[in-house]
Specification:
With about 250 residues, the chain is an alpha/beta fold. The chain has a single domain, classed as Rossmann fold. It contains ten helices and eight strands. An eight-stranded mixed sheet has the order 1-8-7-2-6-3-5-4, sandwiched between helices. Strand 4 and strand 5 form a beta hairpin. Helix 2 packs across helix 3. The longest helix is centred in the first third of the chain and has 21 residues. It starts with a strand and ends with a helix. Bound molecules: adenosine-5'-diphosphate and magnesium ion (MG). Magnesium ion binds next to helix 3.
Length: about 250
Amino acid sequence: MGWPFLQGKNHNEDQVRAIALPGNEDGDPRFLEQFRALRAKFEYKAETLKLKVVAMTSAIAGEGKTISCANLAINLASSGRKKVLLIDVDLRKSDLAGALHISPLPGLSEYLIGSAAVEGIVRNSVVPGMQVIPGGAKITAPADLLAGERFRGFLAAIRSRFDIVLLDTPPILPVADTLGLRNQVDGFIFVFRAGFTPYTMLKQAVEEIGETNILGVVLNGVEPQSCKYYERYYGKYYREIRKGKETT
Ligand SMILES: Nc1ncnc2c1ncn2[C@@H]1O[C@H](COP(=O)(O)OP(=O)(O)O)[C@@H](O)[C@H]1O
Ligand SMILES: [Mg+2]
């Protein structure tokens, strides 16, 4: 499992600061730079292995799936090379619409229960080339719907319209929703929040998903200060860039 480290600043930061929407100048450049690295590795892997539909998941809630998925999608679309669809598949706790400032209804839930058509749930975002499907209204038992034929048919139809389809999923251990996606997606990216999730939980979640289905792991929440190598070689560089930016 080789994948870049995502070195977050701290977990109490306002979510807006953690998402690289155009015009967000408040983000930590070291944090946002990690997503460019993630994008490059992801793009290489997706092209080499011919992957299109990829789910971002984790063992438990609060590990950084939503911000990682949104930032990866934004970076992929911003390169101008990829047409990206980002889908909120966490139908119990749909956070993407709020994070990306798009209207939450109707969304995937409405499509799955048959009250909305595809055209009604795909939204444009402020990032050219990136479209988003919000989760929609909360439904209590989404696992069967996500594992079912209607969602399978939907993903099959949407494949030809996008270069990359990213799914922001619920956590694996508390609910069965993500396990039902194993046969629907080309692979999973795991987010592991260091110092927050016990390693045994990561291990259990990896076993449940199946190691061969995992494309890589994003390590979230490693304090830059705790990484001496990183600070020594990149810290000064970024501080200087920031200083330059502030004075121009
Ligand atoms: N590296 C990070 N730096 C700053 N804030 C973070 C970081 N990782 C997660 N957060 C914050 O922690 C909370 C949970 O993240 P989120 O992406 O919603 O997790 P999940 O989708 O896995 O439940 C959010 O408020 C988010 O902004
Ligand atoms: Mg989430």
